[in-house]
Every structure is written in structure tokens, then in C-alpha cells.
Amino acid sequence: MTAFLVNKLLNWTRKNSLWYFYISGGCCGDELLQTTSCRYDLERFGCIQKTEPSQADLLIIHGVVTRKISNYVKEVYEQMSSPKYVMVLGSCVNSGGLFSGNMVVNNIQELFPVDVFVAGCPPRPEAIMSGLVKLQEKIIHE
Ligand code: SF4
Questions:
Q1: Which residue lies with its CA nearest to atom 8 of ligand 1?
Q2: pLDDT digits 0-9 by tens, 67-79
Q3: Most buried by CB count within 10 Å: which residue of 7, 22, 40, 61?
Q4: Which residue segment(s) compose the domain that 68 sits in?
Q5: Whose CA is nearest to atom 4 of ligand 1?
Q6: Is the beta carbon of 114 within 6 A of some atom in ligand 1?
Q7: What is the atom index within ligand 1 of the atom nearest the CA of 120?
């Protein structure tokens, strides 16, 4: 019973303190920037940007992931602290989108598991926030 409660408490703290590192490969970045602005205020979810992958537990990727940068993306993921989560934004990173082809990673799950996919080209800030809430629900039930 105690272990169960401790787990619940840890999950609750994790879900409310998601520190993210982001990799931007395209125009979806503008929407993420908007989501951090005072109108949407991502920080009220405890979601704070970190510039060092080892300090982050959430990786947000948007835009095109080319084969050329895939090793860098994987390295960033490996440097992050555990437990770690991944949220991908927009159709380019979900499936290659407009740029799908041999030079692009068409399925990001080739590199690592993804927790939340946010659809759209670009996804609106509301969609990004809804993706974050889905991730929080996933974490609390872990
Ligand atoms: S999904 Fe659309 S908005 Fe996002 S990077 Fe690709 S083309 Fe740009």
C-alpha cells in the first residue's frame, strides 16, 4: 500500500514538472513558441524549457527529422534523464509529411518510443496543450 502511494505521489510530481528540451526542424516551432507565450502559458502546467538534455525529461520534436540529423536526435534522447517522455508535433515529424522520402525519417519511432503524437500542419497551441494533458494523464496512470 505504501509503495502504491509513493508511486502515485512520484507520478503526480512528474506530471506537474515536465521540463522539456526541444528539437526544431520546421515551422511548427512558431506554434510551440506561441504556446509558451502569456496567452497560453505552458508554464502553468509546470512545463519549463531546458537547454540541456540531461536536465529534461520531456523531448518535444517538431519539423522534419532528416537521416542526417537522426543520430543527433537519438543522442539527445539518450542524454535525457529517466523516466523520459517524447511528444512529437506536426505531420512532418509524425510521418515525413510534405517531405517524406528516403532522406527523411518517416517513422520517428525507428529512433525511440513516442508517447504522444500531436497531429496538424501546424498543430495549433490548443492541440499542443491537449497533447500535454494526454501525456500527463498517461504519467499519472503509470
Ligand atoms: S508539419 Fe507543417 S507546419 Fe509543421 S514543420 Fe511540417 S510543414 Fe511546417
A1: 27
A2: 999 999 999 999 9
A3: 61
A4: 17-120+132-140
A5: 28
A6: no
A7: 1
